[in-house]
Amino acid sequence: MSKLLIEGVSRTFAGVGGGQPVQALQPVDLAVAANDFITILGPSGCGKSTLLRIVAGLEAPSTGRVVLDGKAVTRPGPDRGMVFQSYTLFPWLTVAENIGFGLRERSMPERERTEVVASYIDLVGLKGFENHWPKQLSGGMQQRTAIARALANDPAILLLDEPFGALDNQTRGLMQELLLGIWERRKKTVLFVTHDIEEAIFMASRVIVMSARPGRIKSDVPVDLPHPRHYTLKTSAEFSALKAQLTEDIRIEAMRTAQTQSA
Amino acid sequence: MLRPLHPVRPGTRTVLGILFFVLFVVFWAWITLGGHVNRIFLADPLSMLKDGWRLLTEDRFWLDILITIWRVFGGFALASIVAVPIGIAMGAWKPVEAFLEPFVSFARYLPASAFIPLLILWAGIGEFEKLLVIFVGSVFQIILIVAVKVGSTRRDLVEAAYTLGATDNGIVKRVIMPANAPEIAETLRLVLGWAWTYVIVAELIGSSSGIGYMIINSQSRLATGQIIFGIIVIGLIGLLSDFAFKALNRWLYPWSLA
């Protein structure tokens, strides 16, 4: 049985000022197996973030439904942890308090909470920064905290919306390895949205390529590269072949986007 | 020499800031002591200081100062206790905002000083009336500013909290309130400054104590030195309370510092 089922989910936004309604997402069907790492790859504005937000319950689909572990999604909840592209740590809480936020919301006793928080601080390599305020952290450290905060809730699925999009290239590479390392050790169902082809291949066991707006699933590419993956994989022949194939797919879509925007 | 937006050195900044005060007092001394204005209408700096000293040592002016401070903080505290929760409720829940916002926007333009005759009829000329003047002058301002700040809470923080399992109640208590606490405190600091204006107006009418009462009393005796001293005292206390408030905010919300 699939962990997550997306059935005929589409999204249409009402027209602005009496204009035509805009379809952001054509009906999408997707079945996600447990412990799969799925990346959703597409050009800007293809509706991939909208799809992720619908799975999170932050937006309602215009048609269709999302089913997680046999239950239909109606609103956001702790079973779907999310990491955003923007830095969304609570600035008034320390790193440790941020990671413990979800645990506190469900009234986990303090002693137990401290233990869980400490283990996740360890997991993302933030020892020594427990009592820092978010604004004292670099972008990479903030996103590491955000990942720990989402994982500490032990969600059924982890949703990531271009989490490394605002980071510089070197940091992004390190963050990819960190997240992949956690996934290889802990196993988790992951939906990861990105527009970066290399990132999409490196992280995924399956890449979903989306078309230009209105988005739909254009291709579904399994990535059978072995685990654990090392950054040197990015220069291997198999990786390059996949990259060439996906680059071609995405290029057509990006050109389509550019044309509709200039029209 | 003067490049736009170019920062000034800290030492130079202090010197320039003090320099204006010095120039101001020198100008004042020149027109008064030099006989350029009639002394009946404007006292010179020296007699102002002399008058002030006499007020403090002989006329127990410090009692007036204390009573004025109490009125400002009393009325202001009352207004804050009422206004901050209403402002948060308006910012957080849009139906509450739709219900109250038009009235509060209207009420905010009602001049507090025009209410004084009415407030005297209702509450007499005692302390409660003085507190009410400040309350009326501050409460609608605080409600509106707090509502706007709370209404513009970062949506991504709210969304993040929802995905972490926060309930609607939890969002208000553990996201919206802490996220806006420093800005609400800043708002209160600003409005406290305005409260100093209202208290003097309240003390000018139907009062028998306070700095404003001393000022209106001095007018009938043409004691311009006392009036100016009173005004300067208000300015100094306002400045001090502003500093104290700023320091308190810095201490309460270290995370919001740049």
As a percent range, the share of strand residues of chain B is under 5%
Measured on Cα atoms, how large is the radius of gyration of chain A?
19 Å
Instruction: Work out the strand percent of chain A.
Output: 15-25%
How far apart, in Å, are the first and last alpha carbons of chain A?
A: 44 Å
Please identify, by name, the CATH architecture of chain A: 3-Layer(aba) Sandwich
Total of DSSP H or I helical runs spanning 4+ residues of chain A: 8
Mind telling me the CATH class of chain A? Alpha Beta
- Gyration radius over CA of chain B: 23 Å
CATH fold descriptor of chain A: Rossmann fold
Structural class of chain B: mainly alpha
pLDDT below 50 for ≥5 consecutive residues: which ranges of chain A? none
Which characteristics define this entry?
heterodimer, A: 263 residues, alpha/beta, Rossmann fold, six-stranded mixed β-sheet, four-stranded antiparallel β-sheet, 8 helices, globular, B: 258 residues, mainly alpha, MetI-like fold
Q: How is this structure best described in words?
A:
The complex is a heterodimer of chains A (263) and B (258). The mean pLDDT of chain A is 90. The radius of gyration of chain A is 19 Å and the shape is globular. A 6-stranded mixed beta sheet of chain A has the order 6-7-8-3-9-10, sandwiched between helices. In chain A, strand 7, helix 6 (169-186) and strand 8 (189-194) form a beta-alpha-beta unit. Chain A is built from 8 helices and 10 strands. With 263 residues, chain A is of the alpha/beta class. The radius of gyration of chain B is 23 Å and the shape is globular. Helices cover 78% and strands 0% of the residues of chain B. In chain B, helix 6 runs antiparallel to helix 8 (168-204). Chain B has one domain (63-251): MetI-like (MetI-like fold).
